[in-house]
Task: inverse folding
C-alpha cells in the first residue's frame, strides 16, 4: 500500500474549512481532470459519490463512500469496487485558522484490470504519471480553494508526503 498526504493552512475558521471540504460535488470546479461529481445521499456517512476523471487518453469513473464523519475535524472515505483506496480529510485548528490535510492510501496493483488502458501502455507507466499529476493537480486545486475560502489569491505552501 502507498500513501500520499497533502496539507496546507487556510486563514478561515475550522468550521468553514470543514464545510468546504465536505462539499464534494464542488471539487469539479477546481480540478482540471475531475470532470463530474454526482452525489448519492445526504453527505454524511453512507453517502456515495461518483467521480469521473479524464487525463491523457483515459476517462475513468470511480465511486467513493463516506464511511465516517466527525464534524468539524474529519471525513473518512473509501473507494467502492475496483481500485483499493481509502483516506480521509482532516481539519485542525491553528493560530491563524485551520490546517487541512488530505490523506489517501492505495494499492496500485488493485488498479490492474480495472482500467481500460490503450494497447502497449503499461500500468507502471500510468501509475508513475498519475502520481506526478496528483501532486501538480493538488497544488493547483489547493491554490484555487484557498483563494475562494480567503477571498484573494496568495502563494500557498503545500506539505506533500509519500510513503
Result:
Amino acid at each position: 500500500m502507498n500513501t500520499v498526504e497533502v496539507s496546507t493552512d487556510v486563514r478561515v475558521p475550522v468550521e468553514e474549512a470543514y464545510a468546504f471540504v465536505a462539499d464534494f460535488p464542488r471539487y469539479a470546479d477546481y480540478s482540471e481532470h475531475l470532470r463530474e461529481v454526482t452525489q448519492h445521499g445526504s453527505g454524511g456517512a453512507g453517502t456515495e459519490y461518483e467521480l469521473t476523471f479524464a487525463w491523457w487518453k483515459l476517462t475513468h469513473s470511480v465511486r467513493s463512500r463516506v464511511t465516517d464523519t466527525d464534524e468539524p475535524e474529519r471525513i473518512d472515505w473509501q473507494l467502492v469496487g475496483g481500485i483499493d483506496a481509502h483516506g480521509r480529510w482532516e481539519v485542525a485548528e491553528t493560530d491563524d485558522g485551520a490546517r487541512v490535510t488530505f490523506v489517501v492510501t492505495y494499492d496500485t496493483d488493485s488498479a490492474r484490470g480495472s482500467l481500460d488502458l490503450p494497447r502497449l501502455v503499461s500500468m507502471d507507466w500510468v501509475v508513475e504519471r498519475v502520481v506526478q499529476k496528483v501532486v501538480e493537480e493538488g497544488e493547483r486545486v489547493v491554490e484555487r480553494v484557498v483563494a475562494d475560502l480567503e477571498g484573494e489569491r496568495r502563494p500557498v505552501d503545500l506539505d506533500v508526503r509519500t510513503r
Residues 123-150 form the longest helix (28 residues).
